[in-house]
Amino acid sequence: MEVAENALRRTLANGYNYRDLTVAEIINVITSYKDLKPIMGSYVFNDGSSRELMSLAGTVPVSYRGNTYNIPICVWLLDTYPYNPPICFVKPTSTMMIKPGTHVDADGKFYLPYLHEWKPPQSDLLNLNQVMILVFGEEPPVFSRPTTQKPYQAFQTAGPTSGGTLIM
């Protein structure tokens, strides 16, 4: 894990105000959630501007009605992280559709009280993942695409403009 930590430190050296805190939290999360990977990519904001940011992308295990489902997510860390909350999205695969609801909009962005009430150091990525898993277990953010529909065409109003660079 030391190799990953050094790679993250180098990647975040330019631009991240609280690099050491951010790296420690990323390592903590990817140690607990093996399917989440740190990826550096271009995030496009609502105003059209973009910035190279770190994200954690992959799946989190969610229990729903006795079964475990791997929900694909992308959590973007602003360069002011951890003093500003992450920007979080559900990223459906081609066989899934977003299910807008209480905590997820039609674009897949999710809104949780935990994010709204973000206060470091009490608020962190590991607890965010745990809250997300509990909330998604009550109200899943995606569902299987009916087989009669055409596969999902990736449309992004925000998020990476390219595949990004896996860090590790």
UniProtKB/TrEMBL annotation:
GO CC, one annotated term = ESCRT I complex
Any idea what this protein is called? Tumor susceptibility gene 101 protein-like isoform X3
Q: Name one GO biological process term.
A: protein transport
Q: Which residues form the UEV domain?
A: 3-146
From which residue to which does the signal peptide run? Answer: none
Gene name, Swiss-Prot/TrEMBL: LOC105892642
What GO molecular functions are on record for this protein?
A: ubiquitin binding
Per the record, the coiled-coil ranges are none
Organism of origin is Clupea harengus
Cited CDD domains: UEV_TSG101-like
Question: Which Pfam families does UniProt cross-reference here?
Answer: UEV
The cross-references to InterPro entries, in alphabetical order and at most eight, read:
ESCRT-I_UEV_domain, UBQ-conjugating_enzyme/RWD, UEV_N
Residues that span the membrane, as ranges: none
